[in-house]
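During the no-cost extension, the postdoctoral fellow (Dr. R.K.) reprocessed legacy sequence entries with the updated structure-token encoder. One reprocessed record is reproduced below for audit purposes.
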Amino acid sequence: MATPTAVAAARRQDLAPRTRRPYRKHVVGLLFLLPATALICLFTLVPFAQAILLSFQEWDGISPDTPWVGLENYERVFGDQVFWESMKNVLVFGLIGFFIGNAISLGMAMAVHKARRARSFFRTAYYIPGVFSVVVIGLMWGWLYEPSVGIINRLLVSIGLEGLQQNWLGDPALALGSVAVTFVWYHWGFGFILFLAGLQDIPAEQYEAASLDGARAWAKFRYVTWPHLVPVTTIVGLLSLLGALQIFGTVQVLTNGGPGYHTMVPTLVIYTEAFTSHRYGVAAAMSVIFGGALVLLALIQLGLTQRRSRS
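Re-encoded structure tokens follow.
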């Protein structure tokens, strides 16, 4: 017959592996996260910390001396009208990409999801713009917008609308919108693919139950489709907003910030300050302010979306 001491020892042996297993799982998970964490620290956090340090210094990119200037670079940035004009322009890009771009992506995804024929063709055709490089996209749309031989103005002439011909990239009133159209066209494929994947995950039984209850198209979208797409919309909205705010190549190829500064964006201002004017301290101060604004907007959007999901 086993003594109480032996029984207690046997219980400790039985419990020991169970108490260790969760710990082992956490260790394995942390080991899998370690490479990605190291890369984020090496290529994101360390450069950002160096940018913060450089923003308090003055450096021309060549001299080994980097004198400490305190807040002087930030004072220059806050007095730079071009930088704040670029912040206003990029906010317009962000709003257009967030609302109009994602609405187009969702509409195309719903149309392809309901299509019974040629679904693969439309899926490929809508995603094709995203596979080209920014330079190719800029050159192509620059030719389309060309005022004398561009296809847009020639198409207007061919259908008898000569009066609507415009200098799409040279007119200050039209340049920002023209670049925004190019940006939306280039990025809508990414949101389209994610929305389409989200639509395919919705159980068909829920649509059948809604039909039996007499729900029409808008009611099905509001009470069945949209609740399932909220997580996807969060990701697509956040990525599209951040992508629009960091726009660089499209603007540089199409207008290089012109005419005047009507299409100037912060990334192009920072690039010009660093690699053309060789004022790396000022460029670093601009990067810190712009990066802080991006993080703040991302946190606000995530907070609002999570609150809406919980409600």
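Residues 4-54 form the longest helix (51 residues). The chain has twelve helices and no strands. The remaining legacy entries will be reprocessed before the final report is submitted.
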